[in-house]
Amino acid sequence: MLLTISTTHHPATDLGFLLHKNPARVFTFGLPVGQGHVFYPEASEEVCTAALLVEVDPVVISRGRGGGRAGLPLEPYVNDRPYAASSFLGTALREAFSTAMSGRSRDRPDLAARSLPFEVRLPALPARGDAALPGRLFGPLGYGVSVQEAPLDPLFPEWGASPCQAVTLRAEVRLRDLLAHLYVLIPVLDDSQHYYVSEAEIDKLLRYGAGWLDTHPERDLITRRFLKHRRALQRAAQAHFTPEEDADAGAPGARNVSLNEQRLEAVKAELLAAGAASVLDLGCGEGNLLARLLPERQFTRLLGMDVSPRVLDLARERLRLAELPEPYRARLTLVQGSLTYRDARLRGFDAAAVVEVIEHLDGARLWTLERTLFGDARPATVVLTTPNEEFNARWATLPAGTVRHDDHRFEWTRQEFRTWAQRVAGEFGYAVTFRDVGEVDAALGPPTQMAVFRREAP
Fold first, then answer.
1. Residue 36, strand partner residues
2. pTM for this predicted structure
3. Which of 346, 381, 408, 418 is the most exposed place for a label (fewest CB within 10 A)?
4. What does the pLDDT look like over 420-445, one tens digit per residue?
5. Residue 195 pLDDT more than 80?
6. Which of 434, 455, 450, 430 is nearest to 380 (CA)?
7. How would you classify the pairing of strands 48-56 and 2-7?
8. Under CATH, which number does the domain 2-195 receive?
């Protein structure tokens, strides 16, 4: 199988620096099912083309270890697997261009961060089940998509069209984004992963889908196919997306800024107004709030905690901790932990942010969070947000009685939230005020409700 990437950026040979592969050499590397090769069919200052060729051993496939599918007796031996672009090619992309996919370039860092003109050719790209699928997947990402179809066999036209197409993609895009799009969408078009799909694939999907998958019109199809139609993994991946953002974007009078961005900015504003220098981000997820707090000089000590090591790894990548200057890196710590257990690491902070977290806990276990956060850690300020269940009626995608995330154990009305927050404040010696986040409906209130707790003097 073959993929070529060309650019007319001047000088075009900078492509070698961006891909970390010398145009004057052939780079050969091993794969579980064969070999991969990177070489340059052309390399001038006007046009430079890098080719990735994957040679798959059909014997390995026929033995069922490399993507052979059950079916007719000859199918494991006679198929398009050695030739058609698939997850084999995705594996080769990561193996050959891992540094480029991270967005790093030691010799051309400015170019790595810029959008450049690229043309990608895939001479045998499957679109199983939908010949228009390449356009539906790559078009919304800003690509011009050219598709050339061919018969399965010119000598036997009655056999119909080939499931593979010659596809050309053209766009001005960052190289790291181009490689991420190819890595995710090629297996989606093929609709078959050649290896066992586990929770690790969720990490890959979220990592390489960051910044574009959440808003892609074919997000559900991409998630379903990339995770090999495994429903449990699909649900876990969907929990990382924010239905509120999608619904808010389509609501009458909605602003261009997503609800999640409004929420994070509102929390940041409260932390700044509190004068906090040290801040806990409890349930920090992928570091979206921390990314907003880190540039603010007021915050000299930040600690993000999450129960999932996998999500913390994503946060480290999103925040690029390894690349931060030492003064920034020294201010930020990421730790694994649970809000339901006392933790000495959480003591001594000025403020804590608990953003869209409590609804993921069983209602009967909320007392453990109350004891841990308000009773033991006792920051001077706590900023806490949670969905407003009443506002769900604004969204047709949320039938009555449906929560916004599959992992939500409950969602509260405004009165239920106020009753809980006032009880907690009174029990642990805090005063509490309430804020609205997002577009406020006159009857239903805001989509997100916020409580700001301030510890009272003894």
1. 29, 54
2. 0.56
3. 418
4. 999 999 999 999 999 999 989 999 99
5. no
6. 455
7. antiparallel
8. 3.30.1610.20
